[in-house]
Write a structure and sequence with these properties.
It is a single chain. The protein is an alpha/beta fold. The protein is 61% helix and 13% strand. The radius of gyration is 18 Å and the shape is globular.
């Protein structure tokens, strides 16, 4: 059964990706860097589809599928969901969407994610949008959110930031070596940050016309 399913998946991926050449931008930034807000702006102004790895995992759990139950159990046990599971969800979302431009938010979280994504999908990102924000600024933003999130206390914020830096820096360094990282100073006000983002997404021809 598994092999038939795998073969069907491969065939579907090949035929769907054969028809379109998905353009992917990875969006990375620590907790509180404001990447969610900027992703919404990019979607609105440049017609990208926003895919969040975390949202896709949560949606799969909510669907009550066998895959969703397995993901939920792993998270409950404090285990890391395997790269392949997240990548399959991303791959499916790209295949099922009519758009061919995607922002993948919060992924790859580490070097293993990155290598697996490229190996499975055969997609290399156009570039990596990296929202660089000092730890103090992120702390200030997260503590001022008042959203009642349990994980927004100072110790947890510092742990999350440390984990982000340790796991994501190798990914950023890898793409930097390929000249694919576009670093944005995310400590500035939202409007200024988006001006810098806009410059990256505006085609060269359009810039000349402005």
């Amino acid at each position: 059964m598994g092999t038939v399913l795998e073969a069907a998946n491969k065939e579907a991926t090949a035929s769907t990706f054969g028809k379109k050449d998905p353009k992917v931008v990875f969006v990375l930034g620590g907790p509180g860097s404001g990447k969610g807000t900027q992703c919404a702006n990019i979607v609105e102004h440049f017609g990208y589809t926003h895919l969040s790895a975390g949202d896709l995992l949560r949606a799969e759990i909510k669907s009550g599928s066998e895959n969703g139950t397995m993901i939920q159990n792993m998270i409950k046990e404090g285990k890391i969901v395997p790269s392949e599971v997240t990548i399959k969800l991303l791959e499916r979302a790209i295949a099922e969407n009519e758009n061919d431009k995607f922002l993948i938010d919060g992924f790859p979280r580490n070097e293993e994610n990155r290598a697996a994504f490229e190996a499975v999908t055969k997609i290399e990102p156009e570039f990596v949008l990296y929202f660089d924000c000092p730890e103090e600024e992120m702390e200030k933003r997260l503590l001022g959110r008042n959203q009642g999130r349990e994980d927004d206390n100072i110790d947890t914020i510092r742990k999350r930031f440390k984990v982000f830096m340790e796991s994501s820096l190798p990914v950023i360094e890898y793409y930097n070596s390929k000249d694919k990282v576009r670093k944005i100073d995310a400590a500035k006000p939202v409007e200024e940050v988006f001006e810098a983002v806009k410059a990256l997404f505006t085609p060269v021809n359009d810039k000349a016309a402005v």
